[in-house]
Design goal:
By secondary structure, this protein is α+β, with helices and mostly antiparallel strands. It has two helices and two strands, in the order βαβα. The chain has one domain. The chain is globular.
């Protein structure tokens, strides 16, 4: 795919579905990912799962 190391991405709708999947892919490609969504518990769980490079 793309090399995104050091790049920043803001993903809206990251608390589920397509937004969550996009956040996972961007993170796996090295991006610093900002998560935004309506379900705080899901966002916190995703951030904990992804670990580093999550804002």
């Amino acid at each position: 795919m793309f090399e995104l190391t050091g790049r920043k991405a803001l993903v809206t709708g990251a608390s589920g579905g397509i937004g969550e999947a996009i956040a996972r892919v961007l993170h796996s490609q090295g991006a610093i990912v900002g998560l935004h969504g309506t379900r705080v518990e899901k966002l916190e769980a995703l951030a904990g799962e992804l670990g580093d490079r999550v804002k």
